Amino acid sequence: MDNSICQVYEDEIQSLEEEIKLLAEKYEDSQQESTFFSDEEILMSIKSFQREFQGQSKGHESPSDLKAQLESLETDLSFLMKFTGIQFTSHSKKTVEKTTNRTVRKHRLSGNCHSLSFQLEFQLLEMQNKESVSAVITDLSIIMESGEDSDVSKFVSSTEEHGNLLTFFRSLSSYAEWYEHRRCTFLHFK
Q1: CA–CA separation, 15 and 74 (whole Å)
Q2: What are the residues facing 120 on neighbouring strands?
């Protein structure tokens, strides 16, 4: 009897150790930064930054100049958000694969455009050769609150198929603006 009880406990201990190992791996994955760099890449980036900084140091940008630039960028961002109606509420990215000339990152975006909310998930494949970098969007998935509107569903399906985010955001901005106008008009007549 004691032998069977010991075996049950040993099995339970082994099961718990495996679970701890899996949870530790998950924790390490979640704690890793979105981007991974080798020592060589870090040194190259530092040298590049130093060259840039030496080139810019001749201009001697003061903290007040930098603050003015930041305020200008914030003003531009505010204008774009008002102009398009698109506001991003969250963004996350995770590096899925990284080699010397190829990087795959998984992005998740969520936000609102006027009164419509949306969520995007896609992979960005960046390929670098000696002279240029090219990027391709793959595995695009879009979730929107479209209700029963079949036109929006068709548009989302087409966008997912072609992976064209620029077209999506342009069309979303226009559609959401007119959706809001229609909604207000119908509320007026109720």
Answers
A1: 53
A2: 109, 142
pLDDT, one tens digit per residue, over 7-57 is 888 888 888 888 888 887 776 665 554 345 555 666 666 766 666 665 555
Q: How far is CA 178 from CA 53, 139, 181, in A?
A: 47, 29, 5
- Is 96:34 a contact under the CB 8 Å cutoff? no
DSSP string of the chain, one letter each residue: -HHHHHHHHHHHHHHHHHHHHHHHHHHHHHHS-SS---HHHHHHHHHHHHHHHHHHHTT---HHHHHHHHHHHHHHHHHHHHHH-EEEEEEEEEEEEE-SSEEEEEEEEEEEETTEEEEEEEEEEEEE-SS-EEEEEEEEEEEE--TT-HHHHHHHHHHHHHT-HHHHHHHHHHHHHHHHHHHHHHHHH-
pLDDT one-digit tens code per residue, 177-189: 888 888 888 887 8
Query: What pTM was computed for the model?
Result: 0.56
